[in-house]
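To: structure desk
From: M.T.
Subject: fold request, one chain
Message: Could you run this one when you get a chance? Sequence is below, nothing fancy, just the single chain.
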Amino acid sequence: MESEVNAILAHELKSPLVLMRQLALSLELEDPARLERTKDQLVSVSERALRQVNDLTKIARLEDALFELEPVSPRALCDEVTRELRYLFRFNHRDLEIHYTNKSRLAIANRDLLYSVIYNFCLNAMHYSDSETKSLLTVKDHAGRIRVDVRDFGPALPMDVWRELKRGWLEKPTSIAMRPGSSGLGLYIATKFAKYMNAHVGAVRHRDGTSFYVELPVSTQASLF
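Reply: Done. Structure tokens follow.
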């Protein structure tokens, strides 16, 4: 099992490095009009790779209980994530629609960990939308909790991965063959962080895609909004 996990981790971390190498080699061949675009791609890919490495470092530190749980606004975090990813969506000619309907405004979570969960879901969705479809980010009340849901329009999620997510977590990083652009490592990270926060990660299989969600305990602290 350890060798399989290491192989998946190596593949996930190798992919952005290969892309960065290709982009770097293309710089000399680019005409001035496209040079800035390629530079922007390099920066974007490197930032995503660094974030993934930082998330893996956080997983190793979860047992130390260093990540404090506190009242957090999921709407505010979603706003921050979408601001960070706005350029990437626009660069790839993708669109992300946002709907907030939750009446419970504060959840109990760790801000940094929840940010990573939402970021991974949105980045995942970007791979499976096009100019004809929109990814959808929703924050709503669900069964006494706050659910942050990201809908994509990719291939159906394999049943074995869906069953693991229904249980609430993934035992190990999972390579998702039907979704080659999707980060199985990102889903693994999300389930680890959610479990630490007493939250629940799951997925809904649609005929034309998948919704990934995290459900968070509602804070009883009076809302400041």
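Reply (cont.): The chain is about 50% helix and 20% strand. Let me know if you need anything else for the meeting.
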